[in-house]
Write a structure and sequence with these properties.
The chain has 342 residues and is of the alpha+beta class. The chain folds into 2 domains: 156 residues, DD-peptidase/beta-lactamase superfamily (Beta-lactamase); 146 residues, DD-peptidase/beta-lactamase superfamily (Beta-lactamase, 3-Layer(aba) Sandwich). Helix content is 43%, strand content 15%. The protein is built from 12 helices and 12 strands. An 8-stranded antiparallel beta sheet has the order 2-1-12-11-10-9-8-7, with helices on both faces. A two-stranded antiparallel ribbon has the order 3-4. A hairpin with a 2-residue loop joins β9 and β10. The longest helix has 33 residues. It starts with a helix and ends with a helix.
Length: 342
């Protein structure tokens, strides 16, 4: 009887092995068919390099880096100023803080989290602004970006200055893109955790991703700039984007929850410049007929994640003025070309 069971089990194992082999062949064939041929990749890389400001161009497909190229003397392993693409990193750090219970949830009022850091004599409604409203740029506070940026960063207390600004919209309504919102989040992370935003960034993102995160600009009170001036290598940005694409995982480690990533990608408002949806630190658009999520910074610092194509794209560029929105449009066309070629 035991010999019969053993022979039957061997036949089952043999069939499973053959089935697994067939499945693996089908899967590998599907990946091969989805891949972009070398000639097309080379042509698209040349097109990316032909853009006047391009410093680097990296592409990962199905977890494999297929392009990693520097231009005009720049290297993919050299630190780049990612400008407002920093906001995408800060938003992810907030998600990691919620996952760990450092922040309760996106509906927690900022007055509870800032405590004594809330300046006196501000509109009482400011304390009721939520973490989520800061993340989605719907705080209603007058912007610190654009024409107000210079005076804001010249102030003695960036957090207090941002919070003292008048409410020019009802919180939770229209999008008012403002680096002040992200900087308030950095102050919240610091106060709620008792650690600097840099320490959290290195511990919660840098270490598990195997990337270096150098120190960056701090405000007069020592709070790391939340939403601008972070330095990362293009290759490190690609690793971050790939982690996001894989649902927040690196190997068998969950770095940030997949629920947070889904929430971050859910549009809550729209950009007045592109009409693209905006969630928590991520814009969402459609390129070549598929959904693409992206973060961007001044001058052409971009990170695209295209889940349906298992694709992550990084471009860094000259961060110095002048620059205009049409340049981003040309970068998006590069990503659309990659999607079309797949």
């Amino acid at each position: 009887m035991l010999k019969l069971i053993d022979r039957n089990w061997q036949r089952v194992v043999s069939r499973l092995t053959r089935a697994s082999a067939v499945y693996a062949l089908i899967l590998s064939a599907g990946i091969a068919n989805a891949a972009i041929d070398t000639t097309s990749l080379e042509s698209i890389a040349e097109r990316a390099g032909a853009l006047a400001r391009t410093h680097s161009f990296l592409v990962a497909i199905d977890g494999k880096t297929v392009v990693a190229r520097g231009y005009r003397g720049h290297d993919v392993d050299a630190t780049a100023n990612i400008k407002s693409l920093s906001k995408t990193l800060i938003a992810t750090l907030v998600g990691a803080a919620i996952d760990r219970g450092v922040i309760e949830n996106v509906d927690q009022p900022i007055g509870e989290l800032l405590g004594s850091r809330m300046p006196q004599n501000v509109d009482a409604r400011v304390a009721e602004i939520t973490v989520g409203q800061l993340l989605s740029m719907q705080s209603g506070l007058e912007r610190t970006s654009g024409a107000n940026y210079g005076s804001w960063v010249a102030s003695r207390d960036w957090v207090a200055n941002a919070l003292r600004r008048p409410l020019v919209a009802e919180p939770g309504t229209r999008m008012l893109y403002s680096t002040g919102n992200s900087h308030i989040l950095s102050a919240i992370l610091t106060r709620a955790s008792g650690r600097s935003t840099l320490a959290l960034m290195r511990d919660w993102l840098g270490e598990p991703l195997g990337i270096d995160i150098p120190a960056w600009t701090r405000d007069p009170q020592g709070i790391y700039f939340g939403g601008n001036e972070m330095g990362m290598t293009p290759r490190a940005l690609l690793a971050f984007g790939e982690m996001i694409r894989r649902g927040g995982t690196v190997g068998d480690r969950q770095i940030v929850s997949s629920d947070w990533i889904e929430a971050s990608w859910r549009g809550r408002t729209r950009s007045i410049y592109t009409d693209d949806a905006y969630g928590y630190g991520w814009f969402t658009t459609e390129l070549a007929g598929v959904t693409a999520h992206y973060g961007r910074g001044y001058g052409g610092q971009v990170l695209f994640v295209v889940p349906s194509r298992a694709m992550t794209v990084v471009m860094t560029s000259d961060p110095t003025p002048p620059s205009n929105g049409s340049y981003f449009g040309r970068q998006a066309e590069i990503v659309a070309a990659l999607i079309d070629a797949g």
